[in-house]
Amino acid sequence: MAQGWHREMYRSVNVPVSYYVGEIRDSDPRLPELFGHEVAVGPNPGVPSGHVPAQLAKFEGFMAEAVARLDAVVSVGEAPTEAGTLHSVLTLCAVSHGEWVRIHPFANGNGRTARLWANWCAVRYGLPPFVRLRPRPEGEAYAKAASDSMRGDHRATVIVFADLLTVRLGP
Known about the structure:
Layout: H1 2-9, E1 40-41, E2 44-45, H2 52-71, H3 83-103, H4 110-124, H5 140-150, H6 155-169
Antiparallel strand pairs: 1-2
């Protein structure tokens, strides 16, 4: 799913190497510019390229399980009516976003794709898309939350996302 999103985002964009679009960093020698392509966000390294496929498989399994659990509590397309359930949805938004940033599977466009994941989760559970794709949300809180997520701590992202949703919903 995310590889398709990535291809769509870059459909009319001139990129240095055409197969960057929709392809992951890994150890596939048929994609030499992505073979061994390592990334970092500030001081935080992304998952080593050779581990990206396994980490993506783990991410997909987590998402399938988390969505199934939440689907049992919140009907797809219906907004949560209880604070605890809303927190669960925001947590799924934050973890999906943060884990995508941590894995950093693409050579570029990971932040936008992570924000798409967050919005996909929000819309699935009846909330409006509340995380701007581009440019990324402003301020130190979002940047710090993303940095924390690179280390596997998604708590600050839940808080940032709750604030962004409140702004999106308005008074």
